[in-house]
TrEMBL record, chains A, B:
Residues 1-82 form the GST N-terminal domain. InterPro entries: Glutathione-S-Trfase_C_sf, Glutathione_S-Trfase_N, Thioredoxin-like_sf. It comes from the Bacteria. This is Glutathione S-transferase family protein. Transmembrane segments: none annotated. CDD domains: GST_C_6. SUPFAM superfamilies: GST C-terminal domain-like, Thioredoxin-like.
Amino acid sequence: MKLHWSPRSPFVRKVMVAAHELGLADRIDCLRTVVRMTQPNLDLLPDNPLSKIPTLVLADGSVLIDSVVICEYLDSLAGGGILFPPSGPERWQALARHALGNGLLDILILWRNERDKPEQRQSPELHDSFAVKTRTTLDRLEADAADLDATRYGIGHIAIGCCLSYLDFRFADLGWRDGHPLLAGWHESFRARPSARATEAVDA
Amino acid sequence: MKLHWSPRSPFVRKVMVAAHELGLADRIDCLRTVVRMTQPNLDLLPDNPLSKIPTLVLADGSVLIDSVVICEYLDSLAGGGILFPPSGPERWQALARHALGNGLLDILILWRNERDKPEQRQSPELHDSFAVKTRTTLDRLEADAADLDATRYGIGHIAIGCCLSYLDFRFADLGWRDGHPLLAGWHESFRARPSARATEAVDA
């Protein structure tokens, strides 16, 4: 399998954490692929017209896009039902957690793009809106932190862990641990797993 | 079930199309909820700290977010495996199609927000980037249009249909049907279904 990959994309990292958890990392050939919101990557468009990573190209040439779809595909390759509970309340809890971590990542990516614009093009309302949503989501995750510890590690944990690590990587100024001690404690257990240590983002 | 809903959100529409296809529409209480990227909805934040719709609140108070998660939950309520193939190549094809339609919707929402900004805050590079990605994705969908007709109607069809209808609703100036005759023909069959007719977006 060929994965359009970057060492700094938190969505790619989710896939690689899942691959390590599932014992599949060595079956993935990572191809360094740079994407920017302002500039489509012309080499990537034939595989993914949305010009987004991660994009997974299978041996038969078929393509999977969207990080959670790729993660579920990898889960199925490893036998299924490992990182994605197959049905019932456990499945909806895992997918709801994933949606919360992933949705906050979506906000953070937009926020970072906004911060990088020339000042006269930035929108103060957007900054304020992103800040409120980020703080409120962190409060919600703090309330869920004890339960994160108590439930089987899965796609929800991976999304939340990658999201918190991305806050450290690109939004260190926010000091997200302040007021979120249980979440900060849980994040240490995420970071200690071999799958996280093998996929740490680096600013090359 | 209570659904945070708007008549003009294409992501909400996906959920409502799925609900109609599954015969569950009358079990959903729609609560008109307005969200803007620049302004968190304070009434929505307790249910969804990301301030996004659709958000589904279940009878036991638990909350599902992310339109595709809500659609899969509804599918499970109706017995499962109806709009979401349970496993195998059919599942990955359906989820890949969903990701393409949904990913183009994500781009169109951002594009519309960009268009709505005061002119001095708009980014010409972003406009160009969104235009290229939209055109390339439509070309890909055109290549898949015959196969859309040939495969069982599911979540991929719903995402693509809602996306094309959103183009009609908010980007009529793009004339997306030009150069995409097979896709335009398929879209007519989407629009003719009762589930689409019952959920048509209206500019109130």
